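Collaboration report, partner site 2.

Our partner group contributed sequences for two proteins of shared interest, and the home lab folded both. The records are reproduced in the order in which they were received, starting with the first partner submission.
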Amino acid sequence: MAGPSSDNSTFDLGRQRIGTVYAKALLGAADEAGQTEAVLEEFQSLLHDVIAQREDLRHAIAGSILTEEQRIDVLNKAFGEKMNPVLLTFLKVVTQHGRQDCLREIYEAARKIDNDRRGLIEVTATTAAELPEQLAASLTERLKEKLGREVALKTEVDPDLIGGLVLHVGDTVFDGSLANRLKQLRLKALEKTAQEAKASLERFTNSTQS
């Protein structure tokens, strides 16, 4: 019998595949309208500034409590006159197909596909506090020099890092956080203690055998 982690991995993979399918449809419509970047930026804002901040809208848009008709009514009333028509129409289609719970996966897949075709590599920089704009720009330039490609920098905040930063470049993680450095110091200290204990034990054993 498969364990919970296996089930979760399969579930996540399924959501990612769904995200990719819908992302291609969104990009096709946005490309045709000549509004790809505008649509992606507004989609990101919807996720970060609206759905993540407003619990009522999160449940209404991405939840399963309301009926399809009710969710579409919420979309029309909340965004009808404000949202890019391409994105609004797309959200209605997603709702009609019952995939509103995959909005984040759809956005991430769309952004990745768009970055790939533009020759960009996405890098996520996670810091303990919000990264100032000037430092973010400087980091982007340094990454471009190191990677030899244009960089799309995404920043995230994780107070548990204490200091420093963690970089995700594709599937590779570079952990330069203070929390990680402290962890490495603790591991080195434990290793040194273990070696000293082993040496002491060997000296004791040798002395008793003399």
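Second partner submission, folded after the first:
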Amino acid sequence: MRVVIAGAGLGGLCLAHGLRRAGVDVVVLERHASPDAKPASYGIHLGADGLRALHACLPERSRTQLTETSSTAPDIVRFHDQDLRVLAERDHTHTSANTDPVTRRRAVNRDALRDALLAGLNTANTGRDDVIRWGSAFDRFEYTKDGVLVHAADGHTVAADLLVGADGANSRVRAQRLPGLRRRDLGIVNIAGRVRLTRDLAGTLPAALVDGAVTNIVPARPGWMFLSTWDAGAAERVIVWAWAAHRSTYPDDLGTAGPARLLDLVRDRTGTWAAPVRRIIAETDLATVAAIPLKTMPELPDWQPTAVTLLGDAIHAMTPMAGIGANTALRDADTLRRHLSADTAPVARIAGYEREMRGYANAALALSTRNARGAATTSRLPRSVFRTVLRLAEAVPPVKQRMFPVR
């Protein structure tokens, strides 16, 4: 069997490893000219789904590299008010998933994860026998009696039994395979930035903001802030933050606003907040500040399986407000690997994968969309109720267990 994967992102590379370990001939088409043409780095929390997939798909060398370049992370999500008073804390650090060496939550820089995924794959770009064909963007496909013929933008073609679109949220594979399935704009915009966690800054911040856990600041008024601390490589740590709000709460010039203007918008909205938060905003590196409109795929409907399928953001791009996008893409890779090992016709294997994937992907899409809308609500009543429920959960353990179940 030969499988062509369009896109050398996290899910595509994980799948490439898993299929090669099973003896499948794999070709990865990647539009970037080399492994050095990387997107901006950011941090990822690897949860049980992602870690199981990496353990199942990656060779030992890559797994070892990943372990050496990542760190264990507290499975803690905190909710504070704008004065940094605790509303609630969800701590799953000592659950069974986090005591299992395979699934214990880890924090990793995206570049480090990608480097581990590239290890063991031929990245020399020396010819058509390379696993990854750098600078060879997917253009289109056509069905054949034996499977699919994949056309690259540079003019060459690859005949395969299956094509997997792993080419991101603006997937060209999806545009041809499922042209009616498009992302929708939620009317929510995140303004995000980073600040270096210097020794001086760290000395002024409470431990809850620098221990690697996820902190949500839930003010009484519209808006929401997310903060977390990440290793940025070269022994540098950063605080990553994002302000989430409905587009209607921003001025009309948001679309043309530069970094300084965007930072001023956040500063204006947090001007009466606790001093540590104000300092984080004040010391943010302007070069890292950007406005990010939140988009999501709709609920995935059923469709007839063919020799072309999709994984990751190519099929279920979601908002970052649940923190599970990368883990879900890795889960796709392992799920597809498992189904392709079945002793059935190729399209039947794809049908099994897509049926299973739609189930958990739709749940993830619903969760991330619900979180985004809750964070950006402009109504004070739902926000007041949510803050009250958080306080109740913190005070009454049975309520907390129901609100934050162990999954």
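Feedback sent to the partner group on the second submission included the following. The longest strand covers residues 184-196. The mean pLDDT is 93.
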